[in-house]
Amino acid sequence: MNYKNIKFIIAGGFAFILLAGLSSCGKKDQNSPGVEFMPDMYRSPSLEYYSTHTIDGDTSNNAMLPVKGTVARGYKPYTYENTPEGYETAGLQLKNPLAIADRELHEKDGEVLYGKFCVHCHGAAGAGDGKVAAKLPGPPPAYDGALKNLPEGKIFHSITYGKGSMGSHASQLTAEERWKLVFYVQKLQGKNLPGADSTAAATTTAVATPSAAPAATTSATH
Ligand code: HEC
Do 90 and 156 contact (CB within 8 A), yes or no? Predict the structure, then answer.
């Protein structure tokens, strides 16, 4: 075989591969994977999400909704309705299930959550002067002003369902996190709850919010 023939065969081979490659594209069916070398890799025997499957002639959805009334393990449904009556009842009956003895720990966690989820509207001291507050139709009322006597049940209810231009936080925060926030909101309300050592609380305030320290000192001298 001479050199020219070898060159011709190689060129022909390349042309064939190129043509085969091109012809495998441009199939009519856009979803066709073309030639399947290992069909199992393309068509897994597992059921795909959000489609249907048929077993013994019964076709059902793969992503089925839970049976009505099902409660996920460890999940405690919130039973107060999102109505004015539900709000009032929650205010009267609903109590913080977290141990008051651990209040300071919860408050600290609450403060961190507050910094992430609430401060931009409510402001660092809860005065309703967060950066976003000015853009709202009405800024949030101050915790230690109009909301000073808001009971814990209503605080939790409003965080859960939202109120006015404040949205619901139930999908971002677990019930426990919302209760931790209730402790922190109560701190901003200026509530003197049992379970806190007053000297420890004063130190925490001074360290955590330096701007609040002078105010605390002034009120102490009065
Ligand atoms: C988008 C801004 C915004 C965010 C974010 C926000 N709030 Fe509010 N919040 C408001 C406004 C506005 C009101 C006043 C609602 C009304 O009474 O119409 C309010 C009211 C409240 C009240 C009083 C509810 C009542 O029953 O009167 C509490 C308590 C409260 N917010 C806590 C929180 C906490 C805790 C967070 C963080 C998890 C938070 N808010 C996040 C805007 C916000």
Answer: yes
Of 127, 115, 130, 188, nearest to 155 by C-alpha is 188
78 lines ligand 1 (CB under 6 A): no
Whether this prediction's pTM lies above 0.90 is answered by: no
CA of 167 relative to ligand 1 center, distance in Å: 8
Is residue 119 within 6 Å of ligand 1 at its C-beta? no
Other CB atoms within a 10 A radius of the CB of residue 43 amount to 10
Determine the distance separating the centroid of ligand 1 and the alpha carbon of 196, expressed in angstroms.
Answer: 25
Each residue's pLDDT tens digit, 31-86: 776 787 777 777 777 778 888 888 888 888 888 788 888 888 888 889 999 999 99
User: Which CATH number is correct for 84-206, 1.10.760, 1.20.1440, 2.30.30, 3.40.50?
Assistant: 1.10.760
Q: What is the pLDDT of residues 91-120, one digit of tens each?
A: 999 999 999 999 999 999 999 999 999 999
Question: Where in the chain are the domains?
Answer: 84-206
What is the per-residue pLDDT for 194?
Answer: 66
Residue of 99, 116, 93, 91 lying closest to 169 (CA atoms): 116
For residue 136 and ligand 1, the question of a CB distance below 6 A is answered with yes
Q: Is 142 in the pocket of ligand 1 (CB under 6 A)?
A: no
Kindly report the length of the chain. 222
